[in-house]
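Supplementary Methods, section 5.1.

A reviewer requested that the exact input to the structure prediction be made available. We therefore reproduce it here, unchanged from the version used in the analyses.
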Amino acid sequence: MTTTRRTIAPGTRGGEPHDQGQPGAAARRARLLLRWYPRSWRARYGEEFTELLIADLAERPRSWRRAADVARSGVLARLASAGLAGHPLDPAAAARSGLATLACSAAAFGVVGTAMSSQLAIGLQWSVPGDHYITVAMDLMSGALLVFAVLALLAAIPVAWAAIAGRSGRRAGALLRPAVLVSAGALILVVGGRHFGNGWPGTGGSWWAAHGLVPSGVAAFGWATTMSVSSFWAHPAMLAAFPAAERAWMVLSPAAAACLVTGVAQLVRRTELSARAIRYEMWLAGVAGAGMVAFLSGALCWVTAGVAGPQRLFHAGTVDLAGLAVLVVALATGAQAAQQARAAGRATLAGQAGQAGRPWPTRTPGR
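The structure derived from this sequence is encoded token-by-token as follows.
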């Protein structure tokens, strides 16, 4: 009597490759190729794809086309997982991934932008700029940072509400770790920023007549929380002259910021947001994009204005030019993530309308 059973590809055990002679060599190669894909993709499709790869390796031991195709598909899968490319299987997850990447891009933009703004604030505390473009730059940058702070609070409300609503059962465990990361990172930054802000280099200067929208206390806090964005890292001898506590803070503060941003991104990815909440977040993203453009315009005004004032207080150095490049990359990445999240959000709304038996509203010609 003949029995039928599921065939397990050579070199695998329960879908996981292991080393066993020549089939084991194919399994190792399949495992390496599989690393091109993100972890979530491997958890869902890894076993089946490993079997296909091992079978193909048996037929074609050497094929650069196969390696290139796997690499290309893996990079696209990683971009989709990061919300930077389409995700045809789960529009809601794609929307959340896009929002999470957008939040990371905005955070990177905000950190570097705050560091650049605080440098101008120090100069304005001690000297009146000879070039009016410096004042224009400070006004644009300060206004944009104020908008970012308000938008961050508004964007956190629906995410926090959805996270609290889904705190029961298995979902509570998935949300606990990012909530701890957010709380710990925020606490460290607030306490450390308040403490080290007392050593702000602008303290003792003249009244800041051209301060624009940034009070000196806010400028000091911004300087303290972004002390790690500094060219002193390239000058170890000068860095060694800093107090040990400041050097420790320059290492701890970016780690705390990374914990905060990572926790926010994980909360956004793991929290079930309604289609209305996604649409609300996308509206805020549009306003944030306009704020990024305004800030970048102010930064360009500063960099292109040249040196003004005594003691080169308003000089834009190499670290500022590098920061400008980071701002451009963050803006481009955020725009791409917002575009993908917006498309996924529309698909989610269309799916919900279809499940409810309602026709999906479309625009009429000329409207």
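The chain has two domains: 12-81, 91-355. These observations are discussed further in the main text.
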